[in-house]
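Mutator family transposase
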Amino acid sequence: MTKTESKTASAAVKDILLSDPQGLHEVIRAVMQEVLEAEMDEALGASKGERTPERLGYRSGYYGRTLVTRVGKLELRVPQDRAGRFSTELFERYQRSERALVATLAEMYVQGVSTRKVKAITEELCGHAFSASSISAINKRLDESLKAFAERPLQEPFAYLILDARYEKVREAGIVMSQAVLIAVGIDWDGRRQILAVEMANRESRSAWRDFLVGLKARGLRGVELVVSDDHAGLVAAIGEVIPEAAWQRCYVHFLRNALDHLPRKHGDDCLQELRWLYDRRDLAEAKADLAAWLAKWSARYPRLTTWVEETIEYTLTFFRLPRQHHKHLKSTNMLERLNEEIRRRTYVVRIFPNSQSCLRLVRALAVETNENWMEANRYINMDDLREHKKLALRQAA
């Protein structure tokens, strides 16, 4: 598209939005109609009316299809071909997030929450009030696909494993309690991220994390060289028990937050900022030199903090074993933050889940959506850096 065409298209969109309160609805409908037409052109190897020897078939009219979106119902015309071979994934992909939300809300019907209230919520978020029977059918299809995702074999090895947990409010036996959502992300040797598992647990106990990791290994998890997590005692113990061959990196962000517990409530200097700078150093030698200087500077003023840091900082520096290009990605669990933000945004709507299964359904559905986006994107990190780093280490050892 030329700059002139781009400006014309932008102006047209702006005119629609300014002239019609429902303009966004029309823009999205028009764009999605164009996507359907483009998919048909690609499937047939020719556009409408085009004469070419590469043509693979012919069009045969349209059929109507209603797509429910967050801007309301879109009435679309789906093209057909004479042989009946054309199909589109547009509706399945676009509605996945809506189904995730609706499937979670469906549990409220079962638990006796006001139908009017649930319909009001779905209308506000999805532009449409779903019937109980419709939601039940969506639930069944969604649960089948989520089960397949959760149980899929892990075919390739994963060099890096990132573990984290968040808590959601769940009602069990009439009592509202916090339950842990355990999440594992792996980075394979192509440098791509994958969400490997999402499970619910009553709490982050050693046995819960152990079962979680054993389940990953049963599905084929192997080749892990580094695990990144916070320092939850149960999690750390489970890592050592189930993946003893892997090095452990304690998330430095969590570490710095924990450091606040060892400082007076009022501290107005640069103590923690200077500690933070250690993690930007080029190698372990530089970091340790700066650590020694930091300890000498602050020991007299904050002896409780400096003693704690000296005793516990070692495992936050494990990432220095990796190639420098990987440091920013593997020194913390921050790569999970976007996923956690999306989970938080969706679960805030529900606030309290009627049971743990409804919570797991929503979070897994979001995990599937995120995982697909990650797999379609460019690789997250260049694993050739790690291959070369390991070769160099072997030569130096010899």
